[in-house]
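Hello,

Following up on my earlier ticket. Below are the two sequence lines again, exactly as submitted.
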Amino acid sequence: MSHKIVTLIEEISKAQSPEAFFGLKAFLLNELKKVHSDYDKLAFKYERSTKEKNILNSLLTKTSVDLKKVSDNLKIRAEELSILLTTIPAFVYFKDTQLKYQIVNQQFAELAGIPSDQIAGKMIHEVFPGYENSDYLEKEYAVLKNGIALYDLEEELTFKDWKRWINSNIAPIRNLENQIVGLIGISWDITERKLHEEELQKSNELAVAGTLAKNEFIASVSHEFRTPMNGILGLSEILKNSPLAPDQVDLLNGIISSAENLLVLLNDVLDFSAIEAGKMEMDYQPFMLDRVMEDISLVMKMKAAEKSLLFDIVIEEMVPNLLIGDSQRFRQIMINLTNNAVKFTEHGKIAVHVSLVKLSGNSAHLRFEVSDTGIGIAPDALNSLFRVFSRIKPSKARQQSGTGLGLSICKKLTELMGGRIGVESSLGKGSLFWFTLPFTLSILHKNRSQEDQPAASSCFKQKLVLVAEDNAINQRIVSYHLQKMGFEVELAIDGQQALEKYHTRNFDLVVLDIQMPLMDGYQVAKAIRQEEQGSMRHLPIIALTANAMKGDRESYLEAGMDDYVSKPFTYATLEKVISKALCRAIN
Amino acid sequence: MVLKTFHADSVKGFRQAWADNTSDGFQPNAAVIFSSVDLELQELVSFLQTIKIQAFGCSSCGEFLYDTNNQVITEGGVVCLMMTLIPESFDIKQFNGLGRSSFELGNNIGKWAGERFEKPAILILGSGLETDGEQLVRGIQHVAGNDVSMFGGLAGDDTQFKETFVFSEEKLENNGAIAMALNTSQYIIQGLATSGWVSIGADKIITHAEGNIVYTIDGQPALDVYKDYLNVSDTDLPEIGVEYPLLIKKPGAQDVLRAVINVDREKKSLIFAGTVPNGAVVTFSSSPGFEIIESTRNKVNEFHNHNEEADLLILFSCMARHNALGPTISEEIDEAWHNWAKPLIGFFTYGEIGNNYNAACDFYNETFTMVSIKQKSDVA
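Thanks for your patience. The regenerated structure is below:
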């Protein structure tokens, strides 16, 4: 540029004309302007560079301090990570995208039995010769491919002379560009846990077996109680029918009442163990609701009257009467709730109310309420009321007795039948227990004449009955009752003797105890029925049993028996069953 | 479209130049005016009122005008573009910002533009110290949609950072915005935005911020961090803060630059031209040097290849570029002028608004933002 200007100046000095001079001058001025502009820019750049240099120097100094801090922090983090790796009770490894080990911790190296620096760069089968779990490697590849961590991978690792259970978590490692560059695996030895789990499993099985055994024990003990109970109640009944002094009648009533309470208790325990063992099965049969309610009313009115309480049952008009359900279990719930109501009420009234909740198709949902004007239940006790062995505090219960199983049985029974149970109560004012049950509507009318067969003692006159019973007391009771009914009784002390005696005389009726030595009741009944085959003969056979479970009835009938009576039984029950069987035979 | 341009260094000079340019019977119906705060702006507005021209103007941080007759970059002067626009295809309206958030201000502008034209493009000038440019843009988009074309800048005051103005022929305001709506069925509007600023230094975290006010960075008062890192004195801010803006890292998106436009020395906080979110990861940033001119020239050439036809160009260039590039800034502007050889007017801003090609409009700092306007040929 300066060369151009010098040339221009030289040319101006040699200008031949004013035109040439002014032309060259304008050209020169323009060139000088450009130089000036370029100078300005250069000067700015210089000045700017100086100013910027200071700022950038400061920024760089500060940045290097920042970076030092960052690097120090990284060192600390690296140190922390290193401590973590060496102290963590786990096997930690880092792998690259080819699944070659990069870094492993000391624990991992010890597991493999190779120094950690010799593991780097190797594949798993080089570190653990014979390792063949391709599934695990596939999972590692999946982590690399999908970038999603996998947790709780369990495998049994067999290597050299040991075998261990390992639980692993695998997670992808990404770089700053978010690309997956490898993975980290953390594995735990869970062999001990596995062993514990196995032990736990075993002890769990034992516990279950123990519970089953306990339930069976309770069931069989309860059953064994029935025979002596039968003795006590039966003999008491006999005694009651003999001439006694008035104070002796009182004492005897005390014995009977205690024995009856004991029986209720036994039945509760038996029911409860059946429910617990899952053996409680419902027996759905057609029944008439009003009949069942009348029965309950008869029993409960008497009990209520003893305490000068009113007892009232109201069945709403809409409630269907012909139902299919387990009337025995329904009755049991009603009796339990009404009994409680009477038990905990000193003045006033017990009211039973039956209403229809819902009628749809051929099913009816009914609600039963038992309300009383008794002592009531404190709110804090309401929740636990239906739990097993729950009893309201003694101070509240006062002199009342019970197993504490009653309500929990009611709850289980309603639930088993598809219903619900609950209570509302106000302390000092009374309680209202309610339960709902679904029933199927029955179109079949139960044959009343059959069920309500009157005790036709006339059928018994001059009849010969064979009684097989091994228990001496029970022999006495059965004989006493049967003789009172007008039968001539032939006794056998076991099944075999019974069968022998059966051949010797022409009997009108056989009453068989089920559990007997040599031959049990089933075998005797089966033998008799077998001999009857081909003839028109059908000898009525009635079972006497301490087993009162559902399903038993079927097995008696299957063995060829006509009916059964549960121990302990009363005169009335025995008479009713026998008359039914005999009259059927005659008809 | 008939266009004339002039520049002056006083209101008196402006009046004279206006008279000279209309002596031939030229009757413009709109004017774009960028003026230094050195001029008596109220007097200028009064003059605009007497000549009844629809004006679209603001104060600046330096103005420039390129035309066949004039190629000037001035400081302390005024530049004017006189236009004959299709009367039913444009409108200009001033919006007061007092007691309104920038977002609400944007809402009002978007609503107005949408009422004027079915598909409007918006030119917008905002007062430079009160407006959160990002919120202004979001406010307009909230009403007019994300695809609306918008270009503009925040007014300057010759780097005094005291009071900036927007004005029409009706009034001069120090808090608000002025908008020009153009009917895109008759005007083709295209834009470019390029920065070139680069991240410098280690990552920092915004530990306390509210809107566009930053109180602490890495737990330290924001003012102290700036002074400490740039090794500058109290009085160097906010000006130096425009040149060394914060670069906000946005994972998975383009990083954005936010320049300091004001300082609260009592609270030791910095006010930025746009929102700086709490918890944001930021670094300082700087012009990498004079080579950014080359980068801008390339971008301008690319834009020209893509968009050769234009009747006029309006350019919003950040004042920080002027500070950083000094007289060499003319090389960027020259490139635009030479490519189209059509009237170009612009000013150095406190913040830029624009669409880079077809991307949604954004608010920027440190950019060279340009808009080309072309009247469609089928219209008279």
